[in-house]
Specification:
It is a single chain. The chain is globular and about 45 Å long. The protein starts with 13 loop residues before the first strand and ends with a helix. Helices cover about 40% and strands about 15% of the residues. It has helices spanning about 20-30, 50-65, 75-80, 80-85, 110-130, and strands at about 15-20, 45, 70-75, 95-100. α1 (about 20-30) links the parallel β1 (about 15-20) and β2. It has a 4-stranded parallel sheet, with helices on both faces.
Length: about 130
């Protein structure tokens, strides 16, 4: 596109994905994928051969990278490393749990929703005391 301004890469942020093949493929087709000069990607395709250690390592890597603003993780995969997801408390990158084709979304297991629920219940208790 001739008239389009270039987006400076040093100020842009990526979305990382940890999910099954269908979900990762969909996001890659939407243009979310990235491979840097060191051949590091911003996604992990999880299948039945992927170990929990590999998922943990990818989650730790994605949350430590400064070029990633959001980490999308399928909820059933997040359940495999729930202790890591629940203990993560930084605002950036944000961790968002998403459904997958084979596993429906369960809001009771979502770490973000449980934190919001906790905050609102704490606020309502505090407002009742006033």
């Amino acid at each position: 596109m001739a008239g389009r301004a270039n987006i400076p890469t040093n100020n842009s942020a990526l979305i990382a994905i940890i999910a099954d093949e269908d979900t990762v493929t969909g996001f890659l087709m939407a243009g979310v994928g990235n491979v840097d000069l060191r051949k590091k990607t911003n996604y992990l395709l999880v299948d039945n051969k992927t170990t929990v250690k590999q998922i943990e390592d990818a989650f730790k890597e994605f949350t430590a990278r400064e070029d990633i603003a959001i980490v999308l993780i399928s909820q059933y995969i997040a359940n495999m490393i729930r202790f890591l997801v629940d203990s993560y408390n930084k605002p950036v990158p944000a961790i968002l749990e998403i459904p997958s084709k084979e596993h429906p979304y369960d809001p009771a297991h979502d770490s973000v929703l449980s934190r919001v629920k906790y905050l609102f219940s704490a606020e309502s208790v505090a407002s009742d005391r006033r």
